[in-house]
Amino acid sequence: MENISNIRYGALPSNSPYIKPFRMRYVQDGITKDADLLKVHDSVCIIIYNRTTKKLIFVRQFRPAVYYAAVSENGSETDDNVNSTKYPPKLAITLELCAGIVDKDLPLKEIAREEILEECGFNISSDRIEEVMTYRSGVDTTGATQTMFYCEVTDDDRVTAGGGIDDEIIEVIELPMDEVEHMVKTGANVVSPPSFLLGVLWFLSNKKPQQ
Amino acid sequence: MENISNIRYGALPSNSPYIKPFRMRYVQDGITKDADLLKVHDSVCIIIYNRTTKKLIFVRQFRPAVYYAAVSENGSETDDNVNSTKYPPKLAITLELCAGIVDKDLPLKEIAREEILEECGFNISSDRIEEVMTYRSGVDTTGATQTMFYCEVTDDDRVTAGGGIDDEIIEVIELPMDEVEHMVKTGANVVSPPSFLLGVLWFLSNKKPQQ
Q1: Percent of chain B clearing pLDDT 90 (strictly above)
Q2: Is residue A73 within 8 Å of residue A15, measured between CB atoms?
Q3: Structural domains counted in chain B
Q4: A11 to chain B: which residues are within 8 Å by CB?
Q5: Do the domain assignments include residue B116?
Q6: Crossing angle for the helix pair A194-206 and A177-186, nearest 10 degrees?
Q7: Are B200 and B100 in contact (CB under 8 A)?
């Protein structure tokens, strides 16, 4: 996963399939304002607890956005052909909940079910998936909705090793309770989105099994 | 705050001061990949507990990104000059932690201190502000870091009504414990970013005062 090379930056092409920026102009209390926004897909994420191993299941992946930000923080934001020895790609290997975008006309639980299978390799029916909460994943530029789910699996539900589909490169990882508790208690320096910390804290507050 | 009119959409100007999109190309495990990203500022957010009123302090504001997304969900995404009677702006009034971007060369705690004053009207010294945790606010497109802080204030610390500076239109709101507990337990349909829910859950797990 960390074999990253030939990093280059360029202009956003006008036909980007990933992000569609635009400007919104409006008048609020008599003041004309502009906001520059992005159209993106809604998404789902899933807290997965493995009852067999008594561990939580997460995914790790290289995130280009995090890499760019991490390199910028070290002062080399304008470098083209970034030195990946000086800035090792592991700086941008994130720890996240299993997640995916809503790009099909299916119930959200069904999309969650597919992500659990594709990314993590567990094949479960959608009635084993519980909706936890819904929020706006970005309020500054996207406004997209993310719905968080929870499910429990066992080793018997595993049908593949997971890892994503097409050219996704995703590593599945199981972490024990004491390790995730340490992460949220100390604010350990995880490279994660807030949904990861929110999901872990929600699990520890509501679902943590008695020892 | 909800007096919003003359909503129009247009192309992103190339000199947008808000978002700077670009493409990153790289090779991972032999596969060439593109990622379209945004350069944005890092940010801080602050969980504020008022010891006098025994309430948590939040901010409410109209978020254009959420409005656009809410209208899109109702099927009118391509409308120019959106009908704000049919789509009331209150759809996009968010409930959030006090927060701000890191656009000055100051310690993060000092930036947090300024936001607590500007948005919420409490003037406290930065040694009363505790760092909680750090995460990547967006892993898909921005990778920016958000640092979460916690502080306690009393009514004696209040020096203004808050509300933001320049043309910001921000409402300060105090909510009692039972109300915020309900929000995170039921996943009540708050229009909020994950940092709000994370901050509330962290507070309830770590700082909630004994009744």
Answers
A1: 63
A2: no
A3: 1
A4: 22-23
A5: yes
A6: 120
A7: no
